[in-house]
Amino acid sequence: MRGVDEVQQVENSGLNWTSYxxxxxxxxxxxxxxxxxxxxxxxxxxxxxxxxxxxxxxxxPSSSNPFPFPFPLPTPLSPVANSQYAPRPxxxxxxxxxxxxxxxDHAEYGAYRPDIPLIEAAAAMSEEENKLPRKELxxxxxxxxxxxxxxxxxxxxxxxxxxxxNNFFGHPAYQKKFGYLVxxxxxxxxxxxxxxxxxxxxxxxxxxxxxxxxxxxxSRFGSRRVYMGAMAAMGATIFMLFFAVNVQMLFxxxxxxxxxxxxFQTLTTAYAAEICPAAMRGYLxxxxxxxxxxxxxxxxVILRASLGLKGDLGWKIPYAMQWVxxxxxxxxxxxxxxxxxxxxxxxxxxDAEKSLRRLARKNHYTDQSMAETxxxxxxxxxxxxxxxxGATYKDCFHGTNLRRTVIICMAWVIQILxxxxxxxxxxxxxxxxxxxxxxxxxFNMGIQSVNIFSTAVAIVLMGTIGRRIFFFFGSSxxxxxxxxxxxxxxxxxxxxxxxxxxxxxxxxxxxxFKVSLGPxxxxxxxxxxxSRVRAQTIVLGRAVYVVGQxxxxxxxxxxxxxxxxxxxxWGAKSGFLYFGLCCVWAVWIFFFLPETKNRTxxxxxYLFQKRVPARQxxxxxxxxxxxxxxxxxxxxxxxxxxxxxxxxxxxxxx
Length: 654
Description:
Helix content is 64%, strand content 5%. The protein has 28 helices and six strands. The two termini are 27 Å apart. It is a multi-pass membrane protein.
């Protein structure tokens, strides 16, 4: 094989490099063009750089053995001082030798070359895992499932608070403390529509801050430390909610509480996507949605139980219940392993191996299978370097990352702007439709009770039904239900009958959402983003979601409240607006949402970089090595400065 040893042989033979080139050309290399240049090499995980003069030969089209890597020359013309940075050219003898020439330790060489046999074996293993029964899959990777599910419980706490915020507006004790006396009814208190919107948006403003912070914090400090820090901050900010004395203090408290909530919203999804194999991603990211649903249901139960409490305890006890989660979840964050993808991006291969072993059952990985898994992860990381050399928000809008970012943002937009959000205002909505306080809270429990069951159904179906089907069905059917709600609000009837009809449709809406759009959004977001900028992309998408939530927090209270409370009095007619939006979402999903089911991150990188149409993602063939040879390798170089031969000879005094 030609390589560094041959460079040394040329030096020892006394040949100059011009003579050597002429001899090789005469011996049948069939080179059409050639040039000399200087390229810098940097060892992964190190700040040290070395440079070497190189000879690059472009083969003719008839050549069966293209020359994908630069051939190093000594600098100056003497034995090579830094030969460990000099990539070996491919063999001209056998395919086996060519494969061997590309099997180079990642940390030793600056120019990355994939270890083809290991990567192919890992890809094959991932394909086999996709065919495993669900029980066997969880038996192999039960630690990953356990850690992901436990850390995601932070969203139960967050779901509780979101449920409390919007439904407190119909709670008598809360209304008396933070509302005003209705002039037409001396025994009735009400929180104005403007303050309802402001308090809800305080949470959203804080969430945006937390989301943006998490995009930087998670890539810098990893998931574990950020999770524990946010949990400690959460425990402190709950004090402001508990001791609030007016709506202004409540508004400020919701902003501060929103910061750690924003961190949890994206951190848990990214962590779930990164610690489990491709076949499990759908289940564990869908579990994130179940946690939200469980939190919403717990909020309705706590609110219903607090109706009988006297004075301020009626609204203080529900807030205090959030402290129950802080210490147990902090301990879980401390015990959990770090994301192996985060460690791979830092070049901490040994730590990534330890993390992977902790995330699978004991003795699951052999030395060979571990080497294969790490090789595929490193290869995926290098493929993504072609598009983005660093993890910054700016990279989310470069190359194929822009398409990924748009898909993720749209997935979040569809999740919030489909009409299901009115279920969060069920108490106010149903009271406006004619129900009394106790009845409205009872029906609200029924509406939220379907959360856990419906998400469990989604998790069971996630392994067999594609993401596109879930999303298209969810948007279309929720749109149909919104049309029915709008019609009910337009047909003259007694308020009681309209209220019952709307309550039933809201139960169906919530059930449909939790089977489709709710859990599938987290799966799409976790799978679509590039691993190098996953935290940043998810943060941007979630920030768009929060902006949509701010819009909803402004619209829904005004649409659902009567004019005396500062509303527009639309009531159930609000369904027409969401029906129109759902029609738009269904069209976008059909043409632009790709199918990510059973695709590894490396395969998805390939499909995005090849700009495969969304409707062909599930069937398009994949070549994992196409993008890391030839042109792909050139993109990985930090600096490629071409010079003609005369300039090099003049500089080196040849």
